[in-house]
């Protein structure tokens, strides 16, 4: 698990991502899919610092957020004073009531690194959905991302937060000894102080990217029928977004 979502890094994450993710567009995109599929109650997994939650609340939608990180949830609650956020793990959670739609946003599927993680997550989504319920999630496309990391060994993102300029340098290592299409992601965070780069965090995490066929098979094995596959470019990654319907057992 990355340190990126803990302590002071949660606030820096929140600031940085708002500069390179357009959360209005992100909300419009997901909300269209939700409405097209006649879903009303929504659980967002990987709700993070509550930027999408804010848009769901503004439109008075029936929304719950779930995240692993207490610090991200604290920011989400601060942003959405009346919102419901659960600290939980997508691989093992139980809602009080089932919902019509479960979203996994912001490429949070990248943290499902083993096949067991993925199967446990889909099993959990299945049992927390209403009959005919849908899941919507994105994942990083291995076939495009791995060559991209080879051609771009260091990827830099910059953002301003509370009058400080932050720089993030990311490097993804396709360590061939790792299982599946796992990558070691190292991200160095710097603050620019008096014109000099000072390192504030050196974050390491193992993430996984997927091929489309892998995801199709995992869904089949876990009793979901794919309704739509959308090829979607996000700020730094080529992703697919899947909409799939629960098959009643
Ligand atoms: C890249 S962030 C995305 C946050 C938000 N969706 C956004 O777009 O800004 C990934 C989020 O997934 C959460 N996360 C990672 N693994 C998780 C797990 N197993 N269960 C629940 N949340 C998890 C992290 O704490 C983090 O908030």
TrEMBL record:
This is Class I SAM-dependent DNA methyltransferase. Gene3D superfamilies: CAC2371-like domains, Vaccinia Virus protein VP39. Residues 42-133 form the Methyltransferase domain. Keywords: Methyltransferase, Transferase. GO terms for molecular function: methyltransferase activity. InterPro entries: Methyltransf_25, SAM-dependent_MTases_sf. One of its GO terms (biological process) is methylation. The keyword Cytoplasm does not apply. It comes from Flavobacterium procerum.
